[in-house]
Here is the input.
Amino acid sequence: MVPWNRFASWLILAACLGSIWSAGSTVADAQGSARTCLVPGFGKPLQRLWHPDMGAAIGYSRHRMGDIAFAVRTQRGFYGYRADHVEWSASVVKAMLLVAYLD
Here is the structure.
């Protein structure tokens, strides 16, 4: 004969697994049947209409002091100004944090 506690544990486990399984199938169904939202007046999705104004951003960076690099990542693209530029200070900061942690 199975003790009541063991039976209750198996029942709770089965209920949890069943709810996870049903929630997963609902999410998959919702993602598969999702429609693209179109911008009124343009008839296109927002990601096809919008892009960062790189000219203005680069112009702004030219009037600033210091070593400037930036990047914007969207679902459809990557826009960057000196995006492959390596910042030397990151290694210094890591070393300082390590010393502070060990101290």
Notes: The two ends are 59 Å apart (CA to CA). The chain has two domains: 1-33, 51-103. The helical segments are 4-32, 46-49, 54-62, 89-102. The longest helix spans residues 4-32.
